[in-house]
Amino acid sequence: MTSQETMKAVGLYRYLDIENPESLIDVEIEKPVPAGKDLLIKVKAISVNPVDTKVRAPKEKTEAVPRILGWDIAGIVEQTGPECTLFQLGDEVYYAGSITRPGGNSEFHLVDERIVGAKPKSLNFAEAAALPLTAITAWEALFERLGLTRNKEENAGKTILIIGAAGGVGSIAVQLAKLAGLTVIGTASRPESSQWVKELGADHIINHYDAFLGQLNAIGLPSVDYIFCLNSTGLHWQNMADAIVPQGKICTIVETDQPLNMNVLKNKSVTFSWEFMFTRAMFQTPDIIEQHKLLNEVAQLVDSGTLRTTVTERLTPIHASNLRKAHAMLEAGRTVGKVVLEHFEDN
């Protein structure tokens, strides 16, 4: 095996509207060789997330070599770097990767083994590919940023509002919060998304287009202990400030165009935090291996039947046309759960 071998991939040279056929194109690029703690993964399935559409969004910039997106991968260990100790050839794995490295929309992909988990045995590759990025995000937000315990007894009577509960991260967060024993209020605005959130275990549904507090009062809640925001942080900011309990905690994953007025949280002594699941990989934090551990825990929860995959749409094969279709579906803002692509044509 030499570094001069090539592989199929889907990438971009220019940042364009998704309707433009040049926005994502089929390319042949050099097949990478693992070094250090990297694994070389034979990619079997990928999933699409809002981060893909944000990175691809139109901007005045061009790439000299194709930029490869994609941060949800399930596949098989093809080769290991000399410093790898966690996986062996042939292991089935799933992971989200790093935003600072090429993504996984390629036949083979390099990833640091410390952010890789063993694929749930009960899932196929497509079902597994729907999980990593959203599971890491939801897990870190709930159990690290918001400081929730996983002890049901300790969480008895505690409430969490999940804004945008029908999306990829919300679909996992609802399940994890219920497993931790919280009362879960999810926001959704359409019958199909409301039904999806209820099926995942939410106790109540409110509409994120209307004021939160009145809707919470109507279901007997004067406030909520925790808020996890997955949609339009700026738009919902005052609603969150109104709904959170004094000394409560708010976490969001959505950046804003304008600065947030933190003063609205002052009188209630509210804790605010960001969750960005790429932080550990991006900065090579000392606790980077926590993502390996949590993905293995998520796999165990899936295999025990207590956590379900959130794939709702499958596209085959993996090529530019299908990836453009998936990006368009996400940009329309009406997806429920996750969109997954599987199988390169010769894979």
UniProtKB/TrEMBL annotation:
Cell compartment(s), UniProt: Cytoplasm
Record-linked Pfam families: ADH_N, ADH_zinc_N_2
Domain Enoyl reductase (ER): from-to ranges: 19-341
PROSITE patterns the record matches: QOR_ZETA_CRYSTAL
Keywords assigned by UniProt, alphabetized: Cytoplasm, Metal-binding, NADP, Oxidoreductase, RNA-binding, Zinc
InterPro entries cross-referenced by the UniProt entry: ADH-like_N (IPR013154), ADH_Zn_typ-1 (IPR014182), ER (IPR020843), GroES-like_sf (IPR011032), NAD(P)-bd_dom_sf (IPR036291), Quin_OxRdtase/zeta-crystal_CS (IPR002364), Zinc-ADH_QOR/CCCR (IPR051603)
Subunit structure: Homotetramer.
Protein family per UniProt: Belongs to the zinc-containing alcohol dehydrogenase family. Quinone oxidoreductase subfamily.
Identification of the protein by name: Zinc-type alcohol dehydrogenase-like protein
